[in-house]
Amino acid sequence: MTGVLFEQVGGVAVLTLNEPESSNALSKTIKDGLVRHLEQAASTPDIRSILITGTGRAFCAGGDIRSFDDRTPVAVRGRLLDTQSLVGYLTGEKPVVMAVNGAAAGAGFGLAMLGDVILVAAEARFVPAFPRIGAVPDLGLAYTLPRAVGLSRAKDILLRNREVSSTEAVAIGLAHERIEGGRLMEEALAVAKGLAEGATVALGMSKALMQGSFDMSAKQFFQAEAAAQALAFSSQDFGEGVAAFRGKRRPNFAGR
Q1: CA 3 from chain center: how many Å?
Q2: DSSP label at 128?
Q3: pTM attached to this predicted model
Q4: Cα dihedral 154/155/160/162 (nearest 10)
Q5: Strands 4-9 and 12-17
Q6: Would you identify the CATH topology of the domain 4-196?
Q7: pLDDT of 88-138, one tens digit each?
Q8: What residue stretch is flagged as signal peptide (predicted)?
Q9: Does domain 200-246 have CATH number 1.10.12?
């Protein structure tokens, strides 16, 4: 079975974790498939957004417990660095939509939180899982979750190993929209297509500004903002956006 399915739908790269028998745990096959297809998406100009989901009842069950037997520091660090290779692609300039179709546990929770837009099915749930086996949250979860829901609430979820339902996830800002009636992929694809049709040069720089803002002083941020805006104004998309506004028509952005 292919660990990750890849399909290009218009300007959207759709990646589907496809090992439902193991609840799409992050096996080497899945990790290698994600890296390969994310690299392909990043380097293909006419792919302008990315959508990630899972096959079956789970989004991703986290780390593959079959790989946990070697617990030497070198082995553990190597496995984690291997998994972390995904982060650069997911935090890159192309917008990422996560369609969380079921349980997102452990590193699967961390993976979901790396999306720019997180959409959840009614049956989705987020489970820290790490405290249950005596592990530290990884794949950036202890970094991304406090930024999404606040430090106090993140501590409550991660330290108590507290499961978060799809309803609560949206209520606390962990996810952005709860979609019922089996329409998750339909809605997620519509969102991803909308992003792909946008001014992706400006969207990418906006994403970088927001991600970097936590590590900048106000002065540094405004300097970065001015530099990004100068680049945006020189883009083909900006010219098209202004022309469309003046012509009272819908813009046709090219991502350049």
Answers
A1: 18
A2: -
A3: 0.91
A4: -10
A5: antiparallel
A6: 2-enoyl-CoA Hydratase; Chain A, domain 1 (3.90.226)
A7: 888 889 999 999 999 999 999 999 999 999 999 999 999 999 999 899 999
A8: none
A9: yes
